[in-house]
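Study this one:
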Amino acid sequence: MLFDSSPERFIAALTTCIDDPEVDAVLAILSPNTLVSPSELARSVTAVTQQMTKPLLTCWMGESEAREGRALFAQARIPTFRTPENAVVAFAFMVNWVRNQKLLQETPPALTSYQGRSPCARCGQAVAEPQILTLPEAKSVLAAFHIPVSPTYVASSASEAVSIANQLGYPGERLYPASPEKLKPPFAT
C-alpha cells in the first residue's frame, strides 16, 4: 500500500487477505508515517483478528511511535517484530513447522505379507535359543522386512556349487557352510 493510505484501507487490505482462501497466513507491516497512528491502527488490527483463524504476524517499525502498537499486539498474543527481516524469518519458521507437521502425519506403507514364517517369530526364536543364522536365513529375515538383499543359492554338493557358479559367472562366489553347527567350533570359547 502507499505511504498515504488511511487506516481504513490498511484494514480493508488485511481483511481481503484474511478472507482469501489462497492465503494461509498474513504478515502485516507498518512503516512509520505522519498520516497513521501506529497505536490506533494496532487497535483496529487487533479487533479484526478476534474472528481470524489464520496466523497473523505484525511488524510495526519505528521506536517510540510504534512501541505502544507492539505492546497492544503482545497483549493480544499476536506475534510482533521491529524489523521486516525478523518477521520474515519467523514466518519462514512457521511455514517449515506446518510442513514438518504434515510430514510427521505420513505413515509408511504397512508390511504386507511374509513368505513362510514371520520374521518377527524367527527373530524371537533366535533370541530364545541363541544361535547363528545361516546366510540364507539372515537374508530371508531381511527380505521379509523389504530390505534389499542379493540372491542366495544353496548348493548341497561341489558339483551343484560349480553349476551355480557357471550360471552366475566367475569370480566372486563365496561358499558358506549350510549348517550352523559347522560355524560353532570357530566361535567356541
Summary: The two ends are 82 Å apart (CA to CA). The chain is about 50% helix and 5% strand.
